[in-house]
Each structure stands twice: as structure tokens, then as C-alpha cells.
Amino acid sequence: MSRPALLLDGLVALPFAFAVLTALLARPGRPRDAAAVVVAALGGFAVLGWSVWAWMDASAAMDGSHVDVAWIAQLDVRWHLGLDGISGPLVLMTTLVVALCLFSLLRHGPGCGGNGQLAALLLLIESGVLGSFLALDLVLFFAFFEVALIPMWFVIDGWGDRHDGPGRRRAATRFLVFTVLGSALMLVGFMIVHAEAGTFDILRIAASYRPSGAAAVTAAVLIALGLAVKTPLWPLHIWLPDAHSKAPTVGSVVLAAVLLKLGTYGFVRFWLPVVDPSWRLLAPFVAGFAVVGIVYAALACLAQTELKRLIAYSSVGHMGFVVLAVATFTVGGVQAAVYASVAHGLITGLLFFLAGAIKDRYGTGDLAGLVVLYGSVPRIGGLFAFAAMASLGLPGLAGFWGEMLAIRSAVYPASALPGSTYVVLAVIAAFGVILTSAYFLALLRRILQGAPAVRPVNEDVASIELVSGEIDPTAATGPRRRDVDGVEWLTWAPLIMLTVLLGVAPGVLLAPVADAATAFLGRLG
Amino acid sequence: MTQDIDWLAVAAPLVLAVAAVLVLLGDAFAGPPRSRRAALVPATLTVLATVAAAVPATMLRDDTRSTFCVVRPLEGPVPCSFVVDRFTLVFWAITLFGTAVVALIGTVAVVEGRTPAGEWNFLLLCSATGALTIAASRDLITLVVALEVVSLPAFAMTGLHRGDRRAAEAAVKFFLVSVISTAVMLMGVSLLYGATGSVFLEQVDSALAGGVDAHRVAVAGTLLTIVGLAFKVAAVPFHMWVPDTYVGAPVAVAAYLSVVSKAAGFVGLILVLALGVGQLADVWSPVVAVLAALTMTVGNLLALLQRHAIRLLAWSSVAQAGYILVPFGAADSSEEALGASMGYLAIYAFVNLGAFAVAAVVGTRYPAQRLSDYRGLVRDEPGAGWALAFSLVALAGLPPGIVGLLAKVVVFDAVAGPATWLAVVMAVNVAIGLVYYARWLAELFRPSAVQGASRYDVPNGVGMAIGMTFVAGLVFSVFPGWLLDPVLGVLR
User: Fold this and answer.
1) A471 pLDDT exceeds 80?
2) CB distance from B400 to chain A under 8 Å?
């Protein structure tokens, strides 16, 4: 086995092997289950290191020849893996986020069930997700896509919200059923593509398949539907808020940062090659739904009363930007999509970690019960403000480039697309950015600062006096609570640093993506 | 005129038939078993018989053998009644594996002592003989007779539980439905014979290809034959007998009905429709497509309502039959589509048997078979628990049950394009089906209701059945090509 082949196969096999090892060590009776979690965390970092090595070894544009053997000869299904500039950033982001989740389990478990088993499930999910990012065969992609579902279902069902048993069960099953419905439709689409193009190999499809005719349109619509459930695209997002808010902290992080990316990555890798941009309706409609999603999500966020639900809805908006970028059929669009995906993974991962930390300390995620975080947990409050700023697209942080590039690519879509429609969509999306800022700022105002406890006595601002000197600040802020601890600092620091790094030096990510996109989709403008 | 009989070709059904007689005679002479071990002898003999029957079958794997042929036909090629080709061998493999597993599941009843083991295994072997014969039959008469050989012992097996009124009721219901379906099918067969002048499938085919005067009669005959076989495979709206029969019968019989007997029905459908009336595919293909859509939708929706494990499996097997019927809906545009049905059937066979085997074990402690009785099974009895979990995810078509996922891939591959609407209906159904499989799966992993409950006393035979199906599932999940390559290649 050549070294690149070993690296790619190992990227799928290593998390699986550690998952098995962790499951064998796990003692369900013990909630902490230190031995198993330590092994899992080591595994997480080993996979992270392995993925960095694989990324160093891979060239930005792959030839896809390293791992390619027949799996089911009669069906023409091949075990075909590859790593390039499109999948590479997502692979690295995945391994990093999962490693951090496993590390955080050392100290902060969901408090029910065993942490060891939870860690094993996370590693299983990682294995499936990495397989999906590497797969270059339609059926193989579908199979890996599904690997993550049952473990995620267990994570939500078994370790979710302690106070709402039936609720988390419903959320878990809804997540499972929606996603499977989507992927089954996607599979039907893949099969039609197979009948039309004569191969499941996406590299060959991208190079030589020229979609035309009713069957090709049906296939593209079905694949778009399937990926739209996963991404999720409005109006197929309804499984998402429940799943995210009922899942345990690490589950929410993995769902938002990693699993949603399967949908966006699928759009780039498996949808673009099977669509002809000159079809008058499909791509503009997808872009239109994406923009509606951006605005809808922002409005929904304004109305949320629960912290994790709010962050979940904000994900719908961010995914809208990604899909809008993809639907422009340009290299710039692919760049924006990958960039925004990675940025969303880092930032929303951090937001969910913080939301989990806040819920741990306050016992509730209800916004009404969260006030004056600056007063009681100033560091968490500060970090939350940072993450929220990053998420709303503050220039200088990673979130900005994703949204900016997405809007820019929508202003200059591929020549075959109706340009004026896209400009309108870009304007609406930009309006969505403003709404996003509005709800994040309102949120910060509400939970970090809280209602002003003191008022100026008279109109003369220069001479502010307290209404009463005896006001006890703890009445408004509540007792001081435990602030960020060591494990949390170590867990969050990489996310924070990368958010800043990608914000100030976007070129590190954009250049390889552009190379890979040009090589993968030669016909893009 | 003398017949030259190719004894090697007929060896496999013959071995089972002889074994059936031996089991019956042995039981009669030995009298009632004096120990638990002695009671296992008939089941052991059955398993050995299936192994013995597999030997001549493997010797035939490279060539096609025909026997019971017309000695001097007036014109054209020599038509034969009994042909062993790769298609036949695939179904023989399913039948022999299924029969062995069912015989092992049947040992669970030995403990209760209410089922006479000798008679039970005799009937099982008789029925399996019929199942082997139908896969090799190439004329309508042999096919109908073989199908009846499958069914008749099955009625008796259903009602063999001593002093169980539900079993008796199940048997009667099953018997009546089956007799009616046979009558309808005979009517269809005789119309086909009348329209084409032959009972041999290849001659029916060539007559239809040449154009027959009584085209409408041939169409009517085809449709009636489909109705008859639809009862056997329990396609909606001919499925009413399934839930009551499965629940009333011993679990092993339900397993047999859902796998081997159902496979026999599908063999009949494939043989008649593909080899016999393939020329009329533009007529029967849409009809079967509608049947498939109805079958999976009704099966899944009603399975959603079930809280009784066996009843749930009964409805799920109705839904699964719908999936197996789906490729028939694409048969008018591609001859190879039916290979997908065979692939699905092969995978469904051992996955479903695995679920029934575990249900039989749980039934020894909780005869009521409520889903909540499965709580904590993974912890109380890891072997059975994990095996059932695997079977359920495979039936749902999700990893780690990769075989189940690939079974669905195979069917989608056949039908997406020629009949995309059917593929979309199936996709929706896969999602619906997930709800009840997931509900059951969740029970397995919950903490058990009774803390520190003792482990199950899994009888060795059933343990072996669970092991066989579980190992088959795992091996074929990692190397799906080992199973799918030969099966899908049969019709190409």
C-alpha cells in the first residue's frame, strides 16, 4: 500500500479503531469513565495529527488514483478516496472539532449516561464524516453519509437534555427520519446520474458528464432535495432546532460544526457536477431558497427564547450563505462556500461550547433566566461576545470573509445564470447580514448586560447619581459563579485562535480551494 | 419412451425428501424423547440434511443441468421441466440456509415441549423440498405443484402448537387464503395454457413472441397468476392473513413463512413473469409497480402502530416484500432489473431470520412479545441484543448494517430512471420504516426494567441460529461483493 493510500484509508480506519477501543474500555456504570475518555481524547488528537499529515502529503488538486479498488463489482461501486483543496479544510476542521469535543469530555460530561460510550460514538461519527469527505464514489459517499446517523441518534436520545426525556427522543427520531428521507432521495438521484453518465466516479462525472434532458433534471432536483435536508436549507430545516437544542453540548457542537458540512460539501462536490447552470430554474431557485433561509433565520432568531435554539437558527442563516455561494457556479463561489463552512464550524462550535458552559452554570438555557453574565461570569461573557461578533461577520474575524465572499460571488455569478436575479438575491442576503447583527447585538445586550439596575436620577447626565446607594449588585447578577476553567481554556483556545487567524489571513485557505475547484470543475468560470 | 433422469440435478431436493421420511420414521420408532438432548435429534438431522443437500448443489455451480425433458419434441428446442442453473442455485442457497436456521430456531420450542419435534422437522423438510423444486421448475404445472408442496406442510406447522387456539385459528386463516390463491393462480395458468398451447415457460415465451390470437386471454391469465402469487408473497391488498398468522404461529414458523415461503413465492413470480410472459412486460410491469407501492406504504404505515414485536415484524416483512417487488416495476425497460429483487431477497433472508431468532429467545421469557419487553437486552444478553440491533438497522437500511443499505442501493439502481416515481415512493417509505425500527432499537439500549435481571437461558440451537445470521450479516457488510456479485450476475 502506497503512503498516500495508507494515509487516506487510515483517516477512516483510525477513528473507527479508537471508537472500538473506547467502547471496549467504557464502563457504563461510571459517569466520568476517565480511562475510556482519555483513550478517546488521545485518539481524537491522533486523528487530528494524522489528518494534518495527510493534508501535507496531498496536493491541492488530486488525481484520485491513490485509493481506487472495486468494492462491489456488479454494481460498479468502487472504494475510491481522495483529498484535495475542497475536502482538505473540512477534514482538518472536523478532526480538530472532534478532538476538542473529546478533550472537553474529560471534565465536562452531559451528566447522564457514561462519558466513555459518548466518546466512542463521537469517534464513530468522525469516522463516517471523514469517509464522506474523502469519498469520490457516489454510493460510497452515501454509505459514509449514513454511518454518522445512528450514532448521532444515540447521542441525542441517550445523552440529550436531562429534563425533557420525551422531547429529546422526539428530536432524535425527527433528526433521523428527516435525514434518512433526504439521503434516500439523494440516492435515487445518484442512481439516475449513474444511468445517465454510466459511472459512479465523481471525478469522471465532473470531467465528462454533460447533463441534459428530463432525467438529468430529475436527478439534480432529487440530489438537491436530499442535500437541502442535510444542510439544512429553508424550508427543510425544521428538524434542526430541536436536534441542536436537545443534544448534549458535544453533540450540538459536532452536529453544527461537522454534520451540517456534509450537506454543504455535498453541494460542492456532488451537486455542481450534475447540474447545468444554463437550466433556467434550478440553480436560481436553490439560491432563492438559500436567501429566504438567511432572512427567515434572522427573524426567527429575534423571536427565540432559548439560547441553543437561537444559535441553531443562526446556523440555518449561515448555511444559506454557503448554498447561495455554491449556486453561483463560480470558483469564487466554491471558495466562499468552503470558507464559510470552515468558519461556521469554528465559530458555531465555539458558540455551542459556550452555550453549554452557560447552561451548566445556570442550569437553564432560557434567555429570561440569563442576565448580566458580565457580572457573574465575566470571562465566559467576554468570550461569548467575541464568538457572537465573529458569527455576525465582524471584519477581521473568520465569519466576515465567508459572508462577504458569498455575497460577492452572488453579484458575479456564472455567465449562464440570470445575473440580475442574483444581484437582487445578493442585496437581500446583505440585508440579512444586518438582521443577523441585530439579533446578535440584542442577544448580547440581553444576557451579558441585563436590564440597567441603576438609572440617572435627573436629566442632567453629567451628574448621575445612584437612586440608592444600597443597591446590591448581586441582586441583579446573581451570585458569582465558576468562570472558565483550565480544560475549557484549552478546548476553546484553538477555535478562538483559528477564528482570528482566518480573519486576518484568509489567503491560507482561499488559495488551495481555488486550485482544487478549478481542477475539479474545469468548466467553471 | 423412457426418461433419462439426471440424478445429480435432482439430488438436492431428493436428499431433503429422504431426510424428511427418515426424521418421521425415526421419531415414530424412537417414541417421545426422554431427555432434552434426545429432543434435539430431529433438528440436528434437519440441519445435517440441508448441509448434505448443499453438497450436490455446489457440484453443479459451473454448468446448467436440465432433466425431465420432453423426449422427442415435434419441433424446436427440447423443453425441460427441471433446470438447475445459477438462478436456481441462488435460491437453493437461500432456501437451505433459511431452512437450517428455522430448524435451529425451532429448538426453542423443545423446552416448552408443546411442539412435537419429529413431526415439526418432517413438515419443515417437506416444505423445503418444495421450495427447492420450485426454483428449478420451468413449466407451469411443476411450478404450481411445487408451490403447493411448500404451502401444505406450512399450514400444519402453523397449527402444530398443542392446545393453542390462536395457532389453530392462524392455521385455518392461512389455509383458506392459500387455497383461494391457488385456485386463482390455477385459473390464470390454465388461461395461459389455453392462449399459448404450452405449459413450458420457454414455449409460452416463444408463442407470445410470435403473437397469439388470444392476446387478451394471455393478459388475463398473466394477471390472475400474479394475483395468486401475490397472496403467497403477501403483497397488499392480498396480505390480510399475514399478521394474525405470524402472531398465532410459533416464532420459528413465522420466520419460515417470512423468508423461505416468501422466497418461494418470489421465485414463482420471477419465473412466470420473466421467463414465461416477459413479452407482456408492458402490461404486468405497471401493475406490479402499483402493487409494490401499495405494499410498502401500507406495510410501513401499519407497522408504525404496532407494539407487539412479532406483529411489527409481520408488517415490516410486508413492507420489505414491497421493496422486493419494486424492481418488477422497471422490468419492461430492462431485463436485468429482476436481479435486484434477487439481491434484496438474499440479503433480507438472513437479516430477517436474525431478528426472528432473537425474538424467539425473548419469547421464552416474555410470551407477550411487547416491545418494552426488549428493554436492556443489549446489557442483559449482549450476544442476542447486538444481533437484533444489527438486524434492525440492516432492515432499516442504515450502517452498520451495510448489507441492508446496499440492498436498497441495488433496488434503487434498478428502478431509478425507468420508474423514478416508484423510487421516490420507496425513498419516502424507507424514512417511514425507520421510525419503528428506531423505536425498537431504542428499547434494546435502555437500562433494563428489572435491575440485575438474570441472563437469558439461550438454547444452543437458537444461539447457533443467531450466530449464523449475525456473522453472515457482518461478513457481507464488509465484503458485500462476495454476496452481491454472484447474485446480481445471474440475470446478466
Assistant:
1) no
2) yes
